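Example complex used in Figure S2.
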Amino acid sequence: MTGQRMLVDIRHFTLTPGKITLLLGESGIGKTLISRTIFGLMPEKELNITINEQDYSDYLAGAQCREIQSQGFFVFQEPSSHLNPMMTLSDQLNEGTIHDPSSNNDILKALFPALTDHERHQLLNVYPKPYRPSGGEKQRFLIAMAFKKMALLKNPDTIFVFDEPTGNLDNVYRNIFLKMLIEVHKTIPLTVLLITHDYSMITELTTRHSEIPDHIEFHEMCVSDNRQKQVKFSTESYISWLRDLQPAVSQRKSSIDPILRLEPEIEVFGRTLLITNDSTHRSRSSLDIFEGDAVYLKAGSGVGKTTIAKIIMGLQHATRFNLNLKGLDLNEKTPINVWKNRIWARTMSMVFQHADEALNLSGKVKDIFRGLPIPERSDRGFIKSTLETVFEKNLPPSFLDMPVAYLSGGQKQRLNLIRALILEPDILILDEPFNGLDFNTMQRILDLLQAHQKKGKSFLIISHNEEIIDRFVTPDRIYYLYRDRSDQERSESP
Amino acid sequence: MTATTTGEKLRHRLNHFVTLKDWLWLSIWISGILFIWIWNLIFLNSPALHQIENGFLNTIIIAAMVILIAAGLGWGITLIDDILYRRFPRMRIALGFLINLIRSVPQIVGTLLGYVLLTLLIQNKILTSAPLILFSMALIIAVFLFLEIFDLLRERIAHFRKLDFYDAMLVCGISEHFIINREIILRSSPMHMINKLIGIFGGAIFLLCSVDFIISVGLSTEISPVDLPVTLGSLLAKIDSKQDILAIGHSMTHWNYMIKLPFEHLQGITVASLIVFTLLCIYQIANGYGRRHRL
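Predicted assembly (789 residues):
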């Protein structure tokens, strides 16, 4: 508790000794808070914590907590704040209880397979800065520290916590990490808490590692009666749901002409971005969205997917682009008032990827609807029934008056989505719509999207949840965004 | 048992109250003012007490009016600036020039010039009623203090424009006026505004006292303070108060005279301490409020 507000109230939280507990659940529900509490990392003076009916200061002074801290390891979800900017990576990798340079090489080789020995050596001599090493490198480096601690472990009766360890990694590195973790666990049956909301980890673990039940338990955290609960997660239900997920078919007769056509060459920030629906990038093609369509735009991290979405929405100035929206030609010279008066909320809208930024956290839940161009925006009954489409049925009326800042990340994301969905624009751009959502909510949102699609509404989706979106759209509706190579070579030449 | 629990509760509440620095200093200020008033009620003659009461009330009323006018002016000019930014960027340069012109004038000089105008209006019988004169004094001071609010609101709007917050609302068809006025200023900036307004309250008292003191001691021959409402600044400049202040200096070398100060030199000491004590408390309140809300 902080001040008057309960942050997390959980009666039973179990980590099976000698097993990896993979803890799923929507963001902001309290997964990190609980793991930090167990690890003895919470500020005892600012918060009122009771653990096993014991005052937190007593728990911190106890032998169990001290053993966890000295023998275990915590990989934080934000790698930049974990590393010391005043020490080289090499020094940090050999600091304190993990001082043993001889065990570095194999672990680093496995986690940085693309680097040569020389490049790895160079990386180790770097002082961490916000931009270097990259987020992914920092995260792999922290994972390396955790594996090193495992290798040097004296007392296996401890806990290793990995809090969103793959948040900055692509699927290749994520899979390397999972493989390494399983391999280590085969030799030392450690107690590991692996926190994630990346549900696609389930497919990777269950399909590639047949011995999984011996090592991993899948759990999910959810809220019931304002109290957090840890429940077993059925991987079968996720996998069978995924297998059965089918693209929706619009009931409206698809028109021949697209309602949106974005020409494949876009110049922005001095570089050229290209669009294709050929996964080998051999040819270019315009991005077409038809009535009742669901289009998936894929690209590597940082290529510019969100930038393209913002250009389409008229929020980002581009040096050159050509867009036709329901017969209306738009380009870099089009004044913003055209979007303002004719497009926003009517023809097109967008859901931004970070609900925390996109919503006003100073307001209450009902305030999210204030100012929207719909007549029922102040009607509590209407707001409640609208919210029930993405939240549970029979929402208590007090929920409408709850400060947005007090909601979990997943709840905020639901508000973020419903605010745009309620407008029913012809095209809705969804930038990472499943950020922080749990499995049940994801299903509910996908059903809702498909219902809208059947009514002729279209979606342009940007998401790293490839496994799910690949099944949500038909293969011909997948587009790829990439940077023009010749452009890249030009910028790299002296 | 109950008594202990009640006692503990009280102690807990008191401890909590002490950590709320802004509320603590607000109560110190109010208690201090009350103490000074009661002391004066007992030991000061009635006409002098009446003058001090008037001076203090006028000063507080003017400072409170400065808050309202500065908030209104700051908010209004911010909206005009924002409309010009979106629709007529060239005209925004003209507004920026005007604002920088006000900014370039030292507050005390600007207020003195405003007093010249005010005196002319009083002499020509254009301004006759006391409330109107008080309002005009507040307006003159607010013109040179509202920039604090304007700068704050402009920064807040610029900050939110950089976030997805602004764009996310725009693409949902929410008007920019709604986003700026309701979502940014009313919902997301009231604490910043209050903190700034507390500062302006203190600034207004300081400016008012300084200018009234300057014109009352006769630095300017062009302006006569005779028809202006009495304030703490003008009271401090009166001959009785000046003698009382000099008595403080005298007591530095004649220690046994110090005991006479709170009885025989009460008017000047009361006025001086009201100014200093009020400014100190307002500074602490603003500081505590800013810290409590992590501004």
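The mean pLDDT of chain A is 87. Residues 87 and 127 of chain A are 6 Å apart (CA to CA).
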